[in-house]
Amino acid sequence: MSHSIGDIAASIGAEAVGDTSLRVTGAAEPQEARACDIAIAITPDFLARLGDGAARAALIAPGADWAALGLEAAIIAPRGRMAMSGLTRRLDPGPDLPFARHETAVVEAGAMIGDGVGLGAFTFVGAAAAIGEDTRIGRHVSIASGAVIGPGCLIHDGVRIGRGCRIGAGCILHPNVVIGADGFSFVTPDPSRVEAARDAMTQLDLPDAPADPDWQKIHSLGGVEIGAHVEIGAGSTIDAGTIRATRIGPGTKIDNLVQVGHNAIVGRDCLLCAQAGIAGSARIGDRTVLGGKAGVADNVTIGADVVLGGGSVALSNVPDGRIMLGYPAMRIEAQLESYRALRRLPRILERLRTSQKPVPKPGQSD
Fold first, then answer.
1. Residues 253-294 pLDDT 10s
2. Of 318, 317, 175, 311, nearest in space to 233 by CA
3. I need a surface site. Which of 193, 256, 316, 357 has the fewest CB within 10 A?
4. What are phi and psi of 195, to 5 degrees?
5. What are 128's strand-pairing partners?
6. H helices of the chain, where?
7. Under 8 Å between Cβ of 136 and 155
8. Is the predicted pLDDT of residue 201 greater than 70, yes or no?
9. Dihedrals φ, ψ of 308, to 5°?
10. What are the residues whose beta carbons fall under 8 Å from the beta carbon of 103, sequence distance 6 or more?
């Protein structure tokens, strides 16, 4: 499908210049663009590469001389990445998900399937599950008994949705997401060594614990509740709560390979980047961002509007609005100063060593 430059610009609220009737079928980086592509040249580096490709049209920043760059048309975007959001949405053909029920899909008696629901090959829907209208579900998906999925959702191949989980309207679950697996929660009849270590904290010598602890599972009865318009990346997992549900607030976006532990509560409009891990019973405030590989310890509360930098681990509560970095996470200015001091330490030690004078032994003269 092709789109005119004028139509694209109008749909994203941007200005079109040149031959606005010029049509494109895709988008590309400037050096790889074909004549049928619109080149994405919103930064000076990308703008400089326009001559390496064959693009006739480009998305550019204000002030760029599109005619001098050899373009026939351009879309001028004051906020380039925002314009990319609308542009890519318009050019995206949409997911490869069914609009109808495949003959191999299994729907148990008592399940409620709304109008316009698509079910892919070998997908299973358990008894008493409910799926809202116009939701599209891929291949090899399993939806357990009693699960509820809102209208207009996109559930990609291989997703697993557990018993009693609830998913709001307009959610997107990418391949192999698992919602509602049991939480990682075990206990021993007598206090285990890990409990003693946690209680002792800085104590080095701990009492002996049983050599073969008898780990007893605490079962997960609480399910998962996911708000509207949440997107969850491939391979991510959200564990069921123990007694109450694990909760994900509306509008939150979760990257690939993210783990949310049992009983955790994640607020509205949060961003959880790849490989972030949230331990059991942690609380994350609204609009908080966890960078890649960031971690939050169990029972820790992170306030609203917090940024926890990539690879950082929060071991204690964080107030609203803080930008945190490091392990353990601390305010970013303190972490950077500590890092600078650590880098200076070898030079300081060398100066100290070379400036020292030997101390004579008793009975020796200087």
1. 999 999 999 999 999 999 999 999 999 999 999 999 999 999
2. 175
3. 357
4. -65, -40
5. none
6. 5-12, 44-48, 80-91, 193-200, 332-355
7. yes
8. no
9. -105, 110
10. none
Question: Is the distance from CB of 147 to CB of 123 less than 8 angstroms?
Answer: no
Catalytically annotated residue among 156, 174, 229, 262: 262
Distance CA 232, CA 242 (A): 22
Q: What number of other Cβ atoms are within 10 A of residue 252's Cβ?
A: 23
Pick from 25, 20, 48: nearest CA to 38 = 25
d(CA 75, CA 93): 21
Determine the angle formed by the axes of helices 5-12 and 80-91, rounding to 10 degrees: 120
User: What is the CB neighbour count within 10 angstroms for residue 40?
Assistant: 23
Q: How many residues does the chain have?
A: 366
Question: Residue 198's pLDDT is what?
Answer: 73
The residue among 120, 328, 133 whose CA lies nearest residue 318 is 328
Cβ partners under 8 Å of residue 78, min gap 6:
61, 62
User: Is residue 106 a contact partner of residue 121, using CB atoms and an 8 Å limit?
Assistant: no
Class at the top of the CATH hierarchy for domain 3-91: alpha beta
174 catalytic, yes or no? no
Q: Which two tokens stand for residue 183?
A: 């939480």
DSSP secondary structure letters along 121-154: TT-EE-TT-EE-TT-EE-TT-EE-TT-EE-TT-E
Q: Which amino acid is at 160?
A: R
What is the reported pTM? Answer: 0.88
**What ranges do the domains of the chain cover?**
3-91
pLDDT for residue 218: 95
Q: Tell me if residue 328 falls in helix, strand or coil.
A: coil
CA 296 to chain centre: 14
Token code pair at residue 241:
């709560």
Tokens of residue 147, six digits: 């699960």
The Cα–Cα gap between 151 and 129 comes to 13
Instruction: Classify 97 as helix, strand or coil.
Output: coil
Cα-flanking dihedrals φ and ψ of residue 349, to 5°? -65, -40
Residue found by looking up tokens 């998900």 in the block? 97
Residue 223: CB atoms within 10 Å: 22
CA–CA gap between residue 150 and residue 164 (Å, rounded)? 13
The total of other beta-carbon atoms located within 10 Å of residue 165's CB is: 25
